[in-house]
Amino acid sequence: DDGYxxxxxxxxxxxxxQKGEARxxxxxxxxxxxxxxxxxxxxxxxxxxxxxxxxxxGKGTRQQNEVVITNSAFALQCATGKxxxxxxxxxxxxxMKGKALKVFTNLISGSI
Length: 112
What we know:
mainly alpha, 2 strands, 112 residues, globular, 9% strand
């Protein structure tokens, strides 16, 4: 376990659901292995905020995008009960087509 409190895709992760606990390999969710330094969040809160903004603006690295998409997909699966394959597609489209940025922008502006 890598110690992250979210799915980092740097190692196997635990999934807790109504069906119990499962250990999941990151292999189906990544093109190539992800290292901890690939998803480093910066030295400061400002660094982390800039990285987050870049990812939402479509400027994230492959590794950053894969981690964000996978976390989003598992959250959607939890909320909707859909298959992970379906929520991976939805999450990819949301991030890559700017939908996630639009929702975030509306959220922080108070439009949601």
